[in-house]
Amino acid sequence: xxxxxxxxxxxxxxxxxxxxxxxxxxxxxxxxxxxxxxxxxxxxxxxxxxxxxxxxxxxxxxxxxxxxxxxxxxxxxxxxxxxxxxxxxxxxxxxxxxxxxxxxxxxxxxxxxxxxxxxxxxxxxxxxxxxxxxx
Amino acid sequence: xxxxxxxxxxxxxxxxxxxxxxxxxxxxxxxxxxxxxxxxxxxxxxxxxxxxxxxxxxxxxxxxxxxxxxxxxxxxxxxxxxxxxxxxxxxxxxxxxxxxxxxxxxxxxxxxxxxxxxxxxxxxxxxxxxxxxxx
Lengths: 135, 135
Known about the structure:
2 copies of one chain form a homodimer. Helices cover 10% and strands 45% of the residues of chain A. Chain A is mainly beta.
C-alpha cells in the first residue's frame, strides 16, 4: 500500500512525519544526519531515497563503492568532489555519482546543507552482480 | 564519470543545464512535462530520477504498472490518488507508490506543481522478474 510522509519542517528545519533522523558520524564524517524517506520500511524493493543533512563545517565520507548515487540539493550550499574535481552546488543542482567514483559532499555555507540521495536497493545490487557473474 | 546538471531555474521556472523538457501529453494526461535528470543518458544502471511538472488544472495519467515510484514534491500543491484515497501534497511531502498501485497526481493550485519521481531502470525490472521466475 502507498505511503505518504508529510513534510513537517519549515525553511529552518527539515523533518518528516514518521521519520527519525539518524546520526551518521564516524572518523570520516562530520556533522551529518540521514533520514530514510523511502526504503525497506516502505517495502520498496528496488531503490532507497534518503535525505542527508550536513551541518556548517561538516562533510560526508570520502569514498567509493559499487553502488551509485542520484542526488538533488534541497537547501544550503556546498561542494561535491567527483573524482578529482570539486564543484559548488546549491538548490536544485543534480549530481550523478556513478559506481566506484570517488566522492564527498561538504557544507561550505553557514546554514544546513541538505540533499536527497537515491541508491539502488542492496538486493538489486546483489541480484545484478549475480546476473553479471553468470554471463 | 560523474555528471552534474546545474539548476538554471528560478522560483518561477525550474530548468537544468543540458536537460530538455519533454511533453507528456496523451488522452489521459493534461499539461504535464518530464525532465529526465538521471537516466541512461548519464549511464545510470539501476534507477532513473525525473522531474515532472504539471500545469494548473493538469494531471498525470491514472494507472498502475509493475514499477514503483519514489516521489518528493518540490513546488506548488496538488493531490495524489493512491488506491482509493486522495491526499493533499505540497513542498517536501514524500510519496511512495508501490508496484501495481493505482495512482494519479493532480495540480490543485494556481502555479506549476513539480516533483521528483524515481523509478527503477527497466533492466533492473526485467532482471528481477527473470530472477523471480527462476525460483
